[in-house]
Amino acid sequence: MRALRILLIIVVILGGLFVIADRVAVNFAEGEAADRLKATENLSATPDVSIKGFPFLTQVVGGSLDDIEVGITNYEAAAGNGAEKIRIDDLRADMRGVEFSGDYSSATATSATGTATIAYDELLKTAKSEPTQVAPGVTANIVGLSDGGNGKIKVTVEATVLGTKLPEPVSVLSSVTVIDGDTVRVKADGLPKFGGVEIAESRVRAITDFQQKIDGLPGGIQLDKVQAAPGGVEITVKGSNVRLAG
Fold this sequence. Notes:
By secondary structure, the chain is α+β, with helices and mostly antiparallel strands. The chain has 4 helices and 13 strands. This is Secreted protein.
């Protein structure tokens, strides 16, 4: 019985040491992965990297990690014209089946899903914020974007008719969708009226409707779905063979 007790004590101690060693190793690996991701994506701040699953060391021996969560704040994505950038406030991605090279210089996830948030004032940069003529004597421009409820964006437009600004801006609810995997499109469900003046639909939509390309997301992930929310436009992202480093 005494020998059995001693054996159990040794097993418990070794098990505890293994857990400690495993957690130390995973913490070190998370730091290294965050630094590599920062360098690969040229980020201004170090991202959050969390390696899930236990034990970590046996996953390393197998050359593949089950699940890695990545969080990046204030990520600047390309806006499609080569010069402009659009800021993503919060990008979160869950990477599955991450395989890495023998020297850990590169890592690729079999699949990835996640979310991103773009503030309304950031998306407003794409809209026509300068007054544009929509009819003789009538100019209009978007002055605000906000949550319209039920996944819609409320687009607020200011208009001037014959040199006089309308006393109140007009607004319209718009649907927001993803097209081509890299572009957010905002399209009005109806058309606003500008002081009773009849204006061709195409001229009005030239103001109310717009789209924003969001290119160069980390590892090649793409936009999937989008909807309006109180804090901004919430986007679902996805990807396959997503490169984390190297």
